[in-house]
């Protein structure tokens, strides 16, 4: 086993669960999108690197489908990837994958960020703002204001909504571990599209922190080219 695959130890005050358990059906690629190359490096490695640069130094838990564990270890060696992380198996949905990661966290005072593996352009500044907000309020969900006008369609009729009241939700979504673990004990519901919806259903208020329009989720085939363009525009640290 590669040396950077490790067991979590109790030295961490903060964690990130990077969910990479999906198959990427909308991407229409044989290889799941978390492994596709972005500027010559797998998407997933960009995402892990952003968290490694966080001032909150989170313990990194990576959730991957069991069938790809060996492939991931090959990539680790091929790219000489040395960032320590613990690997766990993915679940049937994103909800179940997050639960798999949460099972490894026993410190209920910790802060836990949940991050889509396929948002590789997330910045350490956004990550740190979310940890700070969660430390103060218990919840922090990264979001951006809509740049387009918004209409809602109900019963075949469209009505305009107030754009300034509409936010588009990204990741990370960061919480006190005690709250997130309790919320994830609820039975699965198909309205749970993200961690905020799970925690809100449990009864907590969701605080938003500022995201970035470049923090895109790689979902469709064209998103790789868009992400490369954005990555090459980003100031390098
Ligand atoms: N069973 C699942 C499904 C999704 N995810 C992760 O959740 C994130 C956001 O999901 P999405 O973009 O929908 O990824 P996929 O489910 O892989 O894509 P699709 O819906 O197109 O199949 C991704 O990093 C994905 O790997 C996961 O960990 N476990
Ligand atoms: C978690 C998320 O990325 C927030 O925008 C989003 O809800 C994931 O949705 P998907 O349907 O799994 O793409």
TrEMBL record:
Pathway: Isoprenoid biosynthesis; isopentenyl diphosphate biosynthesis via DXP pathway; isopentenyl diphosphate from 1-deoxy-D-xylulose 5-phosphate: step 2/6
EC number annotated for this UniProt entry: 2.7.7.60
InterPro entries listed in its UniProt record: IspD, IspD/TarI, IspD/TarI_cytidylyltransf_bact, Nucleotide-diphossugar_trans
UniProt keyword terms in alphabetical order: Isoprene biosynthesis, Nucleotidyltransferase, Transferase
Pfam families xrefs: IspD
GO biological process assignments: isopentenyl diphosphate biosynthetic process, methylerythritol 4-phosphate pathway
Catalysed reactions, as listed in the record: 2-C-methyl-D-erythritol 4-phosphate + CTP + H(+) = 4-CDP-2-C-methyl-D-erythritol + diphosphate
Site (Positions MEP for the nucleophilic attack): 163, 217
Record-marked site positions (Transition state stabilizer): 26, 33
GO molecular function (one): 2-C-methyl-D-erythritol 4-phosphate cytidylyltransferase activity
Domain of life: Bacteria
Parts of the chain that traverse the membrane: none
PANTHER family per UniProt: 2-C-METHYL-D-ERYTHRITOL 4-PHOSPHATE CYTIDYLYLTRANSFERASE, CHLOROPLASTIC (PTHR32125:SF4)
Role summary: Catalyzes the formation of 4-diphosphocytidyl-2-C-methyl-D-erythritol from CTP and 2-C-methyl-D-erythritol 4-phosphate (MEP).
NCBIfam families given in the database record: ispD (TIGR00453), PRK00155.2-3 (NF001186)
Family: Belongs to the IspD/TarI cytidylyltransferase family. IspD subfamily.
Protein name: 2-C-methyl-D-erythritol 4-phosphate cytidylyltransferase
Species of origin: Mucilaginibacter rubeus
